[in-house]
Give the backbone structure.
Amino acid sequence: MVRVKHRYLLLNILYPEPEQYPWKASLPDTIQFHHPSPDDLTPQLLARAIKDQISILYGDYGAGLTNNGLNIKYLSPATSTAIIRCSRDNYRLVWAALTYMTQLPKSSRFAQARSCVMQVVRVSGTIKKSEEEAIRRAKNAILKAKKDAAGSATEGLNAILDQFGPDVDLEVLRQKRSKPIATLEDEDDDDLEMMSGSD
Amino acid sequence: MFYDLNIPYSASHAELQRILAFSAELGYNVVALNHNVTEKLPAEITNAIPSPLPFNPPSSLTLLRRCTISLSDPAQNARLATLAAAYDLLALRPLTEKSLGQACHDLECDIISIDLSLRYPFYFKHKMVADAVKRGIKFEICYAPGILAVDDGQARRNLISNATGLIRATRGRGLIISSEARKILAVRGPADVVNLACVWGLGQERGTEAVGRESRSVVVQARLKRTGYRGVVDILYGGEKPVAAPVTEEEDQKTKSAKGKRKAVVLRDEVEDAANTKPVSKREQKRRAKKAKQDAAEAEQGDAPIKTIDAQGAQTTVSA
């Protein structure tokens, strides 16, 4: 049996529109763009929005093509990061649909709409690699924001991050996620499986 | 290096500053601010975009200034050269098939930027487009009108159909992709744009070149045309002029005290120089050469040092 192959899109949700609160408008631009997402943004809601966008763009045909295996693997509103799984053949369609999105889905009719930009920062064949990339980016973002804000506070943060190393951060991310990663689906060793997986 | 060669310049600086900051955040390195000219050119052509800008753009961005002229009447383009000199980049926006043909064949510009969100009653012919590409002019695809679904998605439909038509006509060569984002929401990252182009039928490689290398070649060629000699040679760095070392007080005193003598020395040197520079006849040259050879031979026979290596291996020099 040949396994179904996937692609994992690591996604940043950016908020380019100016803040409505004047006290937040004085923050540096980087921090404003990487604003935390609203708490009512759930993986189900995001998946629904993506599927809607796909059917607007490509109609029933596209929706049918991409529906298989389309899944939100990870969504962290705090860092506005998401990992989306989709089938390998049609990941470009999903990506293009993300590019065309300009609004976050609304949780209820009365919630206020937020405009956003979805930026795909990494496409990988395994969820592990996109996870590592997410951690690396989050680290860099914090360092950059600190540097923009003050400049002197960076050393302390650097020391803390170096002290614990990447492994601990990975654990933190794992605990934070709403459900555990399905480790069976990790596709680290494609070649090995190709050799042994013809049962 | 990623290039976005079309960000419309607007007088509302708060919005523009935000767009530039967002472009830098998304990973662009070079951004061109665009000024649109739709009516007749004024008598005195000046650059409409102030430089430096009245606000602080992000330091990682290189800013260029570009002008786009709408072409409908073929007779209006008498002063393109003066306009080109005022801006870093000059783009043409043909509105009719005739003006498109003219822009492809004769007019001197850097970019042909067709408004792809409109429907045209003609299609892009390979021969015409290839002529322009051969002359080094690039075609521009502006993606922003398709991102925001204004007028019920009609603009997006036209954009996709025109873009695929343009990709077909150019065979993917000589294309650049830029945003033309009037609103900040329409700016997308370079990787996202490349993927969009992929979906439209431009290969991944060509797409990456369209936001990178092709755009860079436009910028470099345009600069060479404006500053270089006949568009071929340009001086990037000519070295610095040697700075005369400041004369210290001591040296100053010395020269002052030796002033009388120095004059004589200089004079004598000059006389000697004059004697030396007098042309030497061939016979005299030969004579001198022979004498020099003899001298050398004598020196070797007479007291040339002989190098010997003693038993310990240490090298010693003994004179014979």
User: Anything to note?
Assistant: The first strand of chain B starts at residue 3 and ends at 8. The longest helix of chain B spans residues 282-303. Strands of chain B lie at 3-8, 30-37, 62-71, 89-94, 111-113, 138-142, 175-178, 305-309, 315-319. Residues 3-227 of chain B form a domain with the TIM Barrel fold (CATH 3.20.20.140).
